[in-house]
Amino acid sequence: MLGVLPGAEGEVDQLSASCDGHMLGVWALRGHTLDHMTREASEGSHWSPATRVTASADRLGAVDPRHPYGPVVWRAPTLGGSDERDDLWRFDHGREGDALAPAGVVGVGFPSTFERRVIAGFARQGEAPFIARVEVPLGLRRPSEARPERVMVGELLAVDHAGDVLLTRVVTESGPALVFRFDDGSTSRVQLDNAMVNVHPRGVSVGGRSVFLVGEMHASPDGGGCVDLGPGRCIVPGEVSLLVAAHGRPVQRWPLDEHALPDGLAVDHGAALALWVRPVVGSDTTFERAARVEIPSGRVHTLTLTAPPGVEALDNAALTTCGDTAWITFPSRRAPGDGGGAAVMALPWSCVAR
């Protein structure tokens, strides 16, 4: 069944999906417009009518995969003016609110929810980027004043909501490193051979371990052989790996592909399910790849993906877990005879992979 998105805002730029074991929720971002729909996590069920959350969302945060009705957080678009203030928004079960960061503090990257609060990256002139918790009250008629509470130095890359673990990037005297911050404040780190990484923003918990999907990126000095990710972001994809972190244990790294971009991560019957994109340099063609990885052994089972009838490709897909089973959501379009327009489809993972 198709979930129809309202209006004529164009194609879906970003999908996030979440599920409480019974209801599956999807957040669809088109430009700056964010819509929300739900359906039961059973084959053949119908989507609810779409709810327009906002028409001014930018840098949508990683959505907690356990909560189909929110919370979800985002940054409002800015024009880059010197007097503009970073504006963080939170939406939860139909209520919303926003908070303005102090003057002189610039937002960095995407925000997310963490330990029942909003967490986001910030920067101030002359200081290293830092990560802070922010209170964003709901239901107020005007923006509240944010008072960022520093958690650590670094850039926020991903969140494992179930495990309360952050994945961050820091720059030390030894070079760039990935730092995992656990719920008790302790950390583990891995030095990076390359300064640039592309990380799927949502980690997962499997067997008491936090799993993240990380891709290396390389600059292209002459602009050749690279993949265009937007203005000023033409990069050469490097190795995609799963990084697995746990209290008191060395970080494990399991390579999946030599040249690709991370695209999705979920849990399926006790194993990690990874989705990545292998682009064809010099063209718009991409190939979705997937693997099921056993935790903690690291045994990798490569999967074959097949789009369902009537669907050209599984591009821009989002994974989530309902109960013990992974589901995949992906953009689609209504047939011209039905009025056309953007839509969303959701299926159990077993319908597209073997």
Strand content: over 45%
Please give the alpha-carbon distance between the first and last residues: 22 Å
- Percent helix, as a range, is under 10%
Shape: globular
Q: Secondary-structure element order, as H and E?
A: EEEEEEEEEEEEEEEEEEEEEEEEEEEEEE
Largest sheet: 6 strands, antiparallel
Average pLDDT number:
89
Report the structural category.
mainly beta
Task: Please tell me about this protein's structure.
- It is a single chain.
- The strands form 7 sheets. Strands 18, 19, 20, 21, 22 and 23 form a 6-stranded antiparallel sheet that branches.
- The mean pLDDT is 89.
- The chain is globular, with a radius of gyration of 20 Å.
- It has no helices and 30 strands.
- Helices cover 0% and strands 53% of the residues.
- The protein has 354 residues and is mainly beta.
- The two termini are 22 Å apart.
- The chain has a domain at 56-153.
- A hairpin with a 5-residue loop joins strand 16 and strand 17.
- The chain has strands spanning 2-4, 14-19, 23-30, 33-40, 51-54, 72-75, 87-92, 95-100, 105-114, 117-124, 130-134, 144-145, 149-153, 155-160, 165-172, 175-181, 187-191, 196-199, 204-206, 209-219, 227-228, 234-245, 252-257, 261-268, 271-279, 286-293, 300-303, 318-322, 325-333, 342-348.
Chart the SSEs and their pairings.
Blueprint: E1 2-4, E2 14-19, E3 23-30, E4 33-40, E5 51-54, E6 72-75, E7 87-92, E8 95-100, E9 105-114, E10 117-124, E11 130-134, E12 144-145, E13 149-153, E14 155-160, E15 165-172, E16 175-181, E17 187-191, E18 196-199, E19 204-206, E20 209-219, E21 227-228, E22 234-245, E23 252-257, E24 261-268, E25 271-279, E26 286-293, E27 300-303, E28 318-322, E29 325-333, E30 342-348
